[in-house]
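Example record

One chain of 341 residues, shown exactly as stored in the release files.
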Amino acid sequence: MQAALITGKELIEFVDFDDPSPEPEQIVVDITYCGICGTDIHSFQSDGAAWPSTCGHEWTGFVSKTGSSVDRLSEGDRVVIAVPPSCGNCSACHSGQMEKCQTVLMATVGRGPFATPHGGFAKQLAVHNGRAVKANADLSDIQAAQIEPAAICFHAVRANSPRLGEVAIIQGAGPIGLSTLQWARVAGAGTIIVVEPNEARRKLSLALGAHHAVDPSESSAFISDHTMGLGADIVYECAGIPATIQSAVDLARRGGRVAIIGLAMGDAPISPRQWLTKEIQVSAALGYTHEEFEMTMGYVADGRIDLDVLHSGTVDLIDIAEIFTELSSGVTEHTKVLVRP
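Predicted structure tokens for this chain:
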């Protein structure tokens, strides 16, 4: 069997693996769809190989084999990839901070005992059963393949919710930003302003409930005018670009909040003096809990969060190198692309 892996800068190759056979606590999943994440694209643009188990970490599929110790899942179950439950044994869990479990963190970044030799850009994958969640029966396969990133955004907004009526800014209208704006709308933001250079994505953000969508070159003046010079109450940084960390602070009011969701791969230039004088509250969010994962599926299933509109195309596994090149070029009409192994 072959899996697609990022093996160098702007290089994605097919690597041979043995057909998977489950260990006692594992299941084998036949992958239906695997989403291409912004982190995958950042890795594709960076020097060196991507970490194998994070290259294709947004997938759904059907259980085809179960290990001898697995009793919570059966062959034929439709599942979605997630982080494992809190382990109960690490220092964070022993301190009562199970939502900050170190084992879960390691799995989130593709390390530790839950790591796999490759990700979901393959026909099959053997994974610990604790990382598979039964898909909500009311979800389509295309929706199920997008639950993992939607859950990340839900976790971020749940931890850093806009207060009723507040002005919220979404920096970046990729899949993470477009999902985040929907959660901010559900949470009660009064005005949502999206900052995005791509015109098609600005239009899509308006269709999803944003009140305004502006180009970054116009954002500072527009937001100043709209807020009578104050700035936004909360800024969600979803672009994942080092320079936008500081611009998020620039757009926030004095005493405002900045929530970092997008993963910038490099160091960010910032102005600490401005952060201090503006008394900015900065927080970051990574991952999600199993409760939040289940809640995300429910919100999508009942139509309050629209993932179908984010899905802009599906490609076969054989064409993965071409779509990675297109997505990394910055000149594309795609929003969320799924790979069909």
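Notes: The chain has two domains: 2-149+288-340, 161-284.
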